[in-house]
């Protein structure tokens, strides 16, 4: 299954007023230094900000679902050769996705390094953790969070059940935007949800 995350054009509701309100809100957030340290999604996204980059982390069900991201979003090519650290190999090495051991506890660490200003990694801990590090867009963060956390994606009926399961609402997305200092790529519908389009989830 491939998730088509193409974002629709923003609606014009509120127009210039919304734009002005967002500018004022973003400026206040930046000037106050009150950068959120956690985004209340499911599971929560933890935030660390640095002078040159941001690191976002969250817990993940397991390695198999993390590796599957290459089949689900365009930003991570299916022919990627991520960096892998495993107990059954000497040191870190690059491996094709098909050669990564996802069935045992041997694999300790996997990091994708796509041709983007960010990296995406999975680390085996008591509860596995995913980290997105660099300068990702809000859309990339939302996509990677959903794909690496929402279980049974293939059985989800439409985009609304996916984003709801991962806790993405207008409020959580705007919090993310404030953290990353970027403009939102979508507007909510009158029900304050991500616009639903079941055709965005297609099988391949």
Give a brief description.
By secondary structure, this protein is α+β, with helices and mostly antiparallel strands. It has helices at about 15-30, 65, 140-150, 160-165, 170-180; strands spanning about 1-5, 40, 45-50, 55-60, 85, 95, 105-110, 120-125, 130-135, 200.
Number of domains: 1
N-to-C span: 5 Å
Instruction: Give the class from helix and strand content and strand pairing.
Output: alpha+beta
Shape: globular
Order of helices and strands: EHEEEHEEEEEHHHE
- What about the largest sheet? 8 strands, antiparallel
The strands making up the biggest β-sheet line up spatially as 2-3-4-9-8-7-5-6
Number of helices: 5
The radius of gyration computed from the alpha-carbon positions, rounded to a whole number of angstroms, is 18 Å
How many strand segments?
A: 10
Beta-strand proportion: 15-25%
Regions with little confidence, pLDDT below 50 for 5+ residues: 5-32, 182-204
Kindly state the percentage of residues in helix.
Answer: 25-40%
Give the integer mean of the pLDDT values: 77
Task: Tell me what the structure shows.
The protein is an alpha+beta fold. The protein contains five helices and ten strands. An eight-stranded antiparallel β-sheet has the order 2-3-4-9-8-7-5-6. A two-stranded antiparallel sheet has the order 1-10. Strand 2 and strand 3 form a beta hairpin. The C terminus is likely disordered.
């Amino acid at each position: 299954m491939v998730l088509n995350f193409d974002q629709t054009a923003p609606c014009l509701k509120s127009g210039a007023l919304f734009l002005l309100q967002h500018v004022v809100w973003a400026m206040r957030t930046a000037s106050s230094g009150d950068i959120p340290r956690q985004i209340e999604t499911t599971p929560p996204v933890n935030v660390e900000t640095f002078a040159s980059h941001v690191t976002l982390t969250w817990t993940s069900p397991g390695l198999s679902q993390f590796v599957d991201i290459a089949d689900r979003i365009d930003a991570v090519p299916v022919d990627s050769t991520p960096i892998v650290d495993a107990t059954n190999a000497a040191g870190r090495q690059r491996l094709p996705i098909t050669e990564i051991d996802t069935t045992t506890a041997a694999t300790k660490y996997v990091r994708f390094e796509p041709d983007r200003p960010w990296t995406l990694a999975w680390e085996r801990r008591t509860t596995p953790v995913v980290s997105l590090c660099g300068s990702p867009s809000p859309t990339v963060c939302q996509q990677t969070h959903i794909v690496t956390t929402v279980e049974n994606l293939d059985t989800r009926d439409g985009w609304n059940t996916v984003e709801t399961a991962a806790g993405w609402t207008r409020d959580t997305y705007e919090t993310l935007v404030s953290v990353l200092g970027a403009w939102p790529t979508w507007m909510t519908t009158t029900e304050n949800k991500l616009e639903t389009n079941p055709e965005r989830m297609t099988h391949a």
